[in-house]
Amino acid sequence: MGLNSAIVGLGWWGKHIVNTLQDNSEKIHFSRAMDTSPELVRNFATNKNIELSDKFSDILADEQIDSVVLATPHSLHEKQIIEVAESGKHVFCEKPLALNLASAERAVKVVKDMGVILGLGHERRFEPAMQEIERLVRCGDLGQIMHVEANFSHDKLANLQSTNWRVSKTESPAAAMTATGIHLTDSFVNMFGPVKEVYAQVATRNLANANGDVLNFNLRFENGATGSFNSILETPLYMRYAVFGSNAWVESRDYSHPSEDGPTDLFICKSEGQIETKNYKYLDTVKLNFEAWADAILGNALYPITLDQSLNNIAIFDAICESSKTGLPVKL
Predict the structure, then answer these.
(1) What are φ and ψ of residue 74, in 5° steps?
(2) What is the pLDDT of residues 99-129, one digit of tens each?
(3) 0.90 exceeded by pTM
């Protein structure tokens, strides 16, 4: 028997989560939802056979609900995670976990104290090409890791209204960091460990994007390797992840957003001019992430995104936000 879940927030991504899981997963079923504008999503909830409310307290008080998914503005995450955990329910929070490290630490402490499972919306962990890169890193085939670089750009959030929280400097600081960058720093932490220093820059090319639309950051890992990331929120989709080792390099190229069907190419080079190519068909990594969370709750497996990794990721996020404001490198 799977989870009886509630979802909080039925915006673009909240609806995508429901469309992905409802009647498509044996491990998670949504019976309740909460949204602050119920009149805008009532038809959607009805069509999905989901009871709709505009009060968060209704979700917390429902003893039949064993787990809650949060697809809400970032500034609400800490408070909502704590309240869900204190109600004894497991919680899945869309990224980022929180907007600063202190906030994340408070939320994680309550999760630990209450013994509930925290899931996070880092579905890129579950991409087959990314998992193959991780395997190559861990088994040593690449040699000593020298550098990692990534780009996750798209125009899905272009030309949003100025009142939208996704372009708010408070809700979504450092341009694309909460939209795309946080996914790649999660991968960086998972594959290469803690970071010791970051330097970030933000540019605003379209003045409508109050929080910026270009993000670039460079970082140094505690193990001595370096990394870089770029994201542009006003250009067609471009996704690339490359790791350079002393023996070989590997690069993945995605041609569709994680929410959409599309292939991924993986290139491996161990000698100049000799490039091996692998192709991976689309897998619904959003579904895979949620079902991994469900498996952890049901006692079938450990959830792969650990709490320590989650805190390390927010420490990097915090430092990137500070560096983008000051124009200076920040040590962690």
Answers:
(1) -60, -35
(2) 999 999 999 999 999 999 999 999 999 999 9
(3) yes
C-alpha neighbours within 13 Å on the C-beta side of residue 93: 29
Residue-level pLDDT at 49: 98
Domain 3-122: CATH architecture, name and number where available: 3-Layer(aba) Sandwich (3.40)
Q: What topology does CATH give the domain 124-331?
A: Dihydrodipicolinate Reductase; domain 2 (3.30.360)
Identify the band that residue 161 occupies on the pLDDT scale cut at 50, 70 and 90: confident
- 126 burial (CB, 10 Å; 0-12 / 13-18 / 19+) is buried
Instruction: Please tell me the predicted confidence (pLDDT) of residue 294.
Output: 98
Q: Which sequence spans correspond to the domains of the chain?
A: 3-122, 124-331
Residue 1 token pair = 């028997």
210 to 3, 11, 37, 154, 157: CA distances (angstroms): 39, 21, 24, 17, 13
Same CATH fold assignment for domains 3-122 and 124-331 = no
